[in-house]
Amino acid sequence: MKAEVVQGDLLDQTVDVIVNAWNRNIIPWWLLLPQGVSRAIKRRAGLQPFREVGKHGPIPLGEAVLTSAGKLPFQGIIHVAGINGFWRASEYSIRHSVRNAMSLAEQHGYNSIAFPIIGSGSGNFSRPKALEIMLDELSQLHTELHVIVVQFNR
Questions:
Q1: For 64-84, how does the pLDDT look when each residue is reduced to its tens digit (9 = 90+)?
Q2: Which of 7, 29, 59, 97 is the most exposed place for a label (fewest CB within 10 A)?
Q3: Residues of the domain holding 139
Q4: If you write DSSP's letter for every residue of 31-79 in order, what string do you get?
């Protein structure tokens, strides 16, 4: 499948579900100062999605968890554990985050999904390389989902 790459804000996309590049939930969400995508979600969605993701406990690296979208207009938010305990992303964490988010979206019958570039913010991974890994992983999947990868202009 071929993903659409756009410039813009993840929260302004017209999709069923968005992906939040999250951590592994080892530190409780209420002790963290969210950055990047998570901060934007917290500001616009409120605390409900973070309360829900916190109930899942530690999330294995690269795994995905679905929550409500809070006050956002989406049907849900898929939180992926895209960074390890040292706040670093890797090719493994990026590939598995993409694969598991897509699997979860398909399981729940969504038609469209929007991703940020996983690992390129707090994960300190090269943004162009992270995008390349994501697009390669998405190209290997066979899905009917409309997929958007959003490049945020800093």
A1: 999 999 999 999 999 999 888
A2: 7
A3: 4-151
A4: GS---HHHHHHHHHH-SHHHHHHHTT-S--TT-EEEE--TTSSSSEEEE
